[in-house]
């Protein structure tokens, strides 16, 4: 699975055969998806990614800075904060619950796309609106585990 968009709705998933390195992040994610979307939202747009090495590369940082895209600060080792991690977990559970597990990589790709497309919008809304509570919980527990 590749990158996806968290907004009040969620965007289509796509599968990528290549590894995400810095140039690919810029050419396949930022230019065609993030920059146009940020422009449509305006000054209130905040970009959320994680601390993966390609996301923090100078090339990526420079492109975001040149486009004046504000990036959400992201603490290290914080998957419980990232709403998409809960979506990945749900997708994994849905795939495991299928009566016939995918037998090939292609079968898995098809199953993931089917499950992705069946995610209820209400689940995405709940994950997005819970971000403030997630951030507050991290501050309260001071680097310990949160209820998320």
Automatic annotation (TrEMBL):
Gene3D superfamilies: Ribonuclease H-like superfamily/Ribonuclease H. Signal peptide: none annotated. One of its GO terms (molecular function) is nucleic acid binding. It comes from the Eukaryota. Residues 50-98 form the Tc1-like transposase DDE domain. Pfam families: DDE_3. This is Transposable element Tcb2 transposase.
